[in-house]
Write a structure and sequence with these properties.
Elements (H helix, E strand, L loop, with lengths): L1 E8 L3 H13 L5 E5 L15 E2 L11 H11 L6 H21 L13 E2 L9 E2 L5 H16 L2 E4 L1 E9 L2 E9 L5 E11 L20 H8 L4 E2 L4 E8 L8 H5 L3 E3 L20 H13 L15 E4 L5 H7 L1 H11 L8 E10 L3 E2 L5 E3 L5 E7 L4 E2 L12 H19 L10 H17 L6 H15 L3 E2 L1 H17 L14 H25 L8 E2 L7 H4 L1 E6 L6 E6 L13
Parallel strand pairs: 1-2, 1-9, 2-6, 9-17, 15-18, 19-20
Antiparallel strand pairs: 3-5, 4-5, 7-8, 8-9, 10-21, 11-14, 12-13, 13-14, 16-17, 21-22
Helix pairs in contact: 1-4, 1-10, 2-3, 3-10, 5-14, 12-13, 12-14, 13-14
Length: 575
């Protein structure tokens, strides 16, 4: 059995930033960090557009209060306003902190950090490193992990959270290289495991974004918060689904339909292409539904619209958004200097997740906390994004709440004793689970079952939703879950068995998908990214509250928790 004062699961921005903060405050603490990929391959590295902060380098009229209002309005008033205040107040400080660590932000001619426009923001406040901002930040954080002596377990897959008597005591993990199982005992466990985009068949997320941390919490009896709110990014490159950053529209690109019209004038005349993502995704979906989408041959009635950069000119495209040009050229053969990109909405971000307070400690219910357990980043719900996240606030959440959670842990762990439990029980259970999958004599291929599940989620819980469609989807998902014991693995080996990892991930995806659909079915209103065609209006009187969903084999139970409203009264959301 391995031992650490703190074990952090997840090698992206939130996990790395928390680990560094803990070691900066108390270098004597023994901190371990587990990642199922190498930390540099964490999905944070794919974040493109930027990180929001009121530095006032471009817009001296900006303020943290304006940033906070934009965030709360963007959230359709479901964000907890105390958490948003912390996010926006601490934003400038964390940017300077990152710069001091060595992050290479893009610059203005006078040397200050450059800032660009982003959807839903009323000022130019998004700091960036061309269109590779997550890459630039994560590289510096990971290099600093070595410097501060954090023990890194890369390419280990965490199978289970050890939770006994409402106290987190450690994790069970599996070495992908050789199949070796380990139990890690720790005074504090932190989850920073990212999102779950792979629940859907078209997503900007990488193959590792399978909701493992959320599913482990749910299977341990802990609630998940606001799972119905899934962000579909408006500009996924058709047909592959990878992200074309909002930075492209921030730099001036146009969305056009089959008639060549900039159709956002009909949906958000003031913000146009820089309306919040939920509004823009619905607009694109409605244009396609109305027959104004585009076919690959250029004719009307097709499955995508155009993102047009041509008027921006080659110099601006290649200096400001070179990675987006490269992705379109490499993946679909489009040279964006001379021709428009084909785009449509793609599953992108999870506003919901593991419920935490503003110190990052995980909630057992609306009014109780779990001892020894913390979470931050996309897997957590603090909630700063509410029903819809503004672009460039996700990297900010990872850094602000990663750092804040690290500080909380550094203080909290001082009074914690190393927990006791029967490690062999968990090793034996993990061995049985693995052997059970390896020995299963089923008839279903993992890929076929996963695709059927992802197609089902996309069809029944997409950009637009109705009660009848979601109810059908829930039945279909439960039928697919019943087929999971019928999957079979060709690879029976212990070394680098990716098929085994995929089987474990599929089990987690199915748990998360059922919780998303159940939560969405019971929220009978439209708010942010949750758009009900049978309930098109927002209903604050009944649904200005957070959903808490509890998983069990018998079904999902729901409770609700109040939203913190202490600064901005909810009002109609117009752009």
């Amino acid at each position: 059995m391995l031992e650490h004062d703190v074990i952090i699961v997840g090698g992206g921005l939130a996990g790395c930033r928390a680990a560094l903060e803990i070691k900066k405050i108390n270098p004597s603490l023994n901190v371990g960090l587990v990642a199922k990929t190498h930390p540099i391959r964490s999905h944070s590295v794919a974040a493109q557009g930027g990180i929001a902060a009121t530095l006032k380098n471009v817009d001296p009229e900006d303020s943290w209060e304006a940033h906070a209002f934009d965030t709360v309005k963007g959230s359709d008033y479901l964000a907890d306003q105390d958490a948003v205040e912390i996010l926006t107040k601490e934003a400038p400080d964390v940017i300077i902190d990152l710069e001091h660590m060595g992050v290479l932000f893009s610059r203005l001619p006078d040397g200050h950090i450059a800032q660009r426009a982003f959807g839903g923001h009323s000022h130019k406040r998004t700091c960036y490193a061309a269109d590779k901002t997550g890459h630039a930040i994560l590289h510096e954080l990971v290099s600093n992990l070595r410097r501060y002596g954090v023990q890194i377990y890369d390419e280990w897959y965490v199978m289970r959270l050890i939770l006994e008597e409402d106290e987190a005591k450690g994790v069970v993990m599996f070495h992908i290289l050789d199949g070796h199982l380990e139990v890690v005992r720790a005074k504090v466990v932190m989850f920073a495991t990212g999102g779950y985009g792979r629940v859907f068949n078209t997503t900007s997320n990488d193959f590792a974004s399978t909701g493992d941390g959320l599913a482990m919490c749910a299977m341990a009896g802990l609630p998940l918060e606001d799972m119905e709110f899934v962000q579909f990014h408006p500009t996924g490159l058709y047909p592959v689904g990878v992200l074309i950053s909002e930075a492209v529209r921030g730099e001036g690109a146009y969305l056009r339909n089959s008639e060549g019209d900039r159709f956002m004038a009909n949906y958000a005349p003031n913000q146009m292409e820089l309306a919040p993502r939920d509004i823009t995704s619905r607009a694109i979906t409605l244009e396609i539904r109305a027959g104004r989408g585009i076919h690959p041959d250029g004719s009307a009635g097709g499955p995508f619209v155009h993102l047009d950069l041509r008027h921006m000119g080659e110099e601006k495209i290649m200096s400001r958004v070179p990675f987006c040009w490269e992705e379109a050229h490499r993946l679909v053969g489009v040279d964006a200097v001379h021709e428009p990109m084909p785009v449509r909405p793609t599953a992108h971000y999870s506003m919901g997740g593991i419920p935490v307070n503003t110190d990052g400690q995980v909630r057992r219910s609306g009014d109780r906390l779990v001892e020894g357990f913390f979470a931050a980043g996309e897997c957590a719900c603090v909630s700063v994004h509410g029903a819809n996240r503004l672009g460039s606030n996700s990297l900010l959440e990872c850094i602000v709440y990663g750092r804040r959670t690290g500080r909380s842990i550094a203080e909290y762990v001082q009074t914690r004793k190393m927990p006791t439990f029967d490690a062999q029980f968990y090793i034996t259970e993990a061995e049985k689970r693995i052997q059970g999958l390896l020995n299963q004599n089923g008839t279903m291929r993992i890929g076929a079952l996963r695709s059927a599940f992802q197609d089902c989620m996309t069809e029944h819980c997409g950009v637009f939703r109705t009660e009848s469609v979601m109810a059908q989807g829930l039945e279909a998902i439960q039928e697919l879950q019943a087929q999971y014991p019928q999957v079979y693995l060709d690879d029976k080996g212990t070394h680098w068995n990716t098929e085994l990892i995929e089987a474990l991930e599929l089990g987690h995806l199915m748990v998360v998908g059922e919780m998303i659909l159940t939560s969405a079915l019971h929220r009978k209103e439209s708010r942010g990214a949750h758009s009900r065609e049978d309930y098109p209006q927002r209903h604050d009187g009944e649904f200005l509250k957070h959903t808490l969903s509890y998983y069990s084999a018998a079904g999902i139970d729901l409770e609700y928790m109040p939203v913190v409203v202490n600064r901005f009264e909810p009002k109609e959301r117009k752009y």
